[in-house]
Amino acid sequence: MANTAQARKRARQAVKQNAHNSSQRSTLRTAIKAARKAIQAGDKEAATLIFQQSVSKIDSIADKKIIHKNKAARHKSRLAAALKALSA
């Protein structure tokens, strides 16, 4: 239990930040799922548009250090490879 005023404040801030970061991670997962679903549907134009939106969201969350930059790169790479395989 936090004993000082400073520690109590940091505990309150941590709760708020955890809720915000959890929300951002959920948005990230939703964007990745949407891209995968669009790629599986087979429509190249729609998949490309959703892919670009997903990449933007992934980059945004990585810039805020909610996920590691290498994890963001891995997600983008796998989505791009799947999109490329769709056209082949």
Give the structure's gist in a few sentences.
This protein is mostly helical and 88 residues long. It contains three helices and no strands.
3D architecture notes:
Belongs to the bacterial ribosomal protein bS20 family. Binds directly to 16S ribosomal RNA. The structure is a single chain. The chain has 88 residues and is mainly α. The chain has a single domain, classed as Ribosomal protein S20 (Methane Monooxygenase Hydroxylase, Chain G, domain 1). It is built from three helices and no strands. Helix 1 runs antiparallel to helix 2, helix 1 (5-41) packs parallel to helix 3 (69-87) and helix 2 (44-63) runs antiparallel to helix 3. It starts with a helix and ends with a helix. The mean pLDDT is 95.
Summary tags:
Methane Monooxygenase Hydroxylase, Chain G, domain 1, mainly alpha, 86% helix, 3 helices, 88 residues, single chain
Task: Describe the secondary-structure layout.
Elements lengths: L4 H37 L2 H20 L5 H19 L1
| Order of SSEs | HHH
Based on helices, strands and strand pairing, what is the structural class? mainly alpha
User: Helicity level, as a percent range?
Assistant: over 70%
Q: Say what the CATH topology is.
A: Methane Monooxygenase Hydroxylase, Chain G, domain 1
Give the distance, in angstroms, between the N- and C-terminal Cα atoms.
Answer: 58 Å
What general outline do the C-alpha atoms trace? elongated
Quaternary status: single chain
Summarize the biggest pleated sheet.
Answer: none
Radius of gyration: 18 Å
Q: Please tally the β strands and state the result.
A: 0
CATH class assignment: Mainly Alpha
Q: Give the low-pLDDT segments.
A: none
Strand content: under 5%
Q: Give the domain tally.
A: 1
GO molecular function, one term: structural constituent of ribosome
Protein name: Small ribosomal subunit protein bS20
Keywords: Ribonucleoprotein, Ribosomal protein, RNA-binding, rRNA-binding
Family: Belongs to the bacterial ribosomal protein bS20 family.
